[in-house]
């Protein structure tokens, strides 16, 4: 079986966990601090603040910028639902903008038209490991005095014109097991703003600046040292893991036929959290079933855009339509891309897809 994802846990991760268990310091301690420092270096930011997961990172980042009831946040409907839910958590309203069908990312040409007097932030999602067009978004944000909160949960190490994802505004990351690096579960906020960094630290730890003195409403969104130890061991391997993903993607790009392979604009560094093809003419589901029979794992990210999810229809009605997002939901198929794939695995995936599509590589 060629698995869709396979977290790589080696001797370094296992030893790091054992050292934490033996130390007796299991909660937010020195490993968390070390992980934060290491990840800030990866993103070229002054600060990184570890959290319990990527969703809490988004939640905290919005709160740290004072976004709440009555505010609007512009984002994409084609992503995992946590991106939009985090906006609801703080009492704000997600305002969706359709995607660019080539990149699956927010269509920057439609963003400015979505700005209203209530807009406080743009929340771009660097989907599948490819950054959004940040020059265009920064220009809009500066024009209307908006905050940028990057959902970089799938884009560890991705670049836009040489600059790292998570360094353009306030960045948020996830370390879920399928990500390019993992801490088993966890999240991270990145920023160059000292005040935002301090606010994030306070919110994640029950509103405390001093132990048992609570200055404001906060949450228990802390990361444990056990998780941080795994994440810290993985940070040293991020470049190696990403290069393996990029090499696997290059093989697919060269050999796949009859499907649309990922589009990477010039100046962008894609890290392929997912390698997502588009399968035309309504054949996506049949291809997926065929690959399953061939013992090749695949996944659909995402089968239903957020604006069509029941909770959002109940809240905002069913009148919203984003044709590019809806089309992507019916055509997108993610293939195995993880670093553990062998040359034989890659060849099997390619041969199976090309055979089904009636093509030859």
Q: Based on Cα principal axes, name the global outline.
A: globular
| Beta-strand content bin | 5-15%
Fold-level CATH name of the largest domain: Aspartate Aminotransferase, domain 2
Report the sheet with the most strands, covering strand number, pairing sense and barrel closure: 7 strands, mixed
Strands side by side in the biggest sheet: 1-9-8-5-4-2-3
Give a description of the structure.
This protein is an alpha/beta fold and 361 residues long. It has helices at residues 11-23, 30-43, 54-64, 82-89, 134-144, 194-204, 225-235, 238-255, 284-293, 310-316, 323-331, 343-356, and strands at 47-51, 72-75, 93-96, 119-122, 147-151, 159-160, 163-164, 170-174, 187-191, 208-210, 213-214, 268-269, 275-278, 332-335. The strands form four sheets. The protein has a seven-stranded mixed β-sheet, sandwiched between helices. Helix 2 runs parallel beside helix 7 (225-235), helix 3 packs across helix 4 (82-89) and helix 3 crosses helix 6. The longest helix is centred in the last third of the chain and has 18 residues, at 238-255.
Q: How would the blueprint of this fold be written?
A:
Layout: H1 11-23, H2 30-43, E1 47-51, H3 54-64, E2 72-75, H4 82-89, E3 93-96, E4 119-122, H5 134-144, E5 147-151, E6 159-160, E7 163-164, E8 170-174, E9 187-191, H6 194-204, E10 208-210, E11 213-214, H7 225-235, H8 238-255, E12 268-269, E13 275-278, H9 284-293, H10 310-316, H11 323-331, E14 332-335, H12 343-356
Parallel strand pairs: 2-3, 2-4, 4-5, 5-8
Antiparallel strand pairs: 1-9, 6-7, 6-12, 8-9, 10-11, 13-14
Helix pairs in contact: 1-7, 2-7, 3-4, 3-6
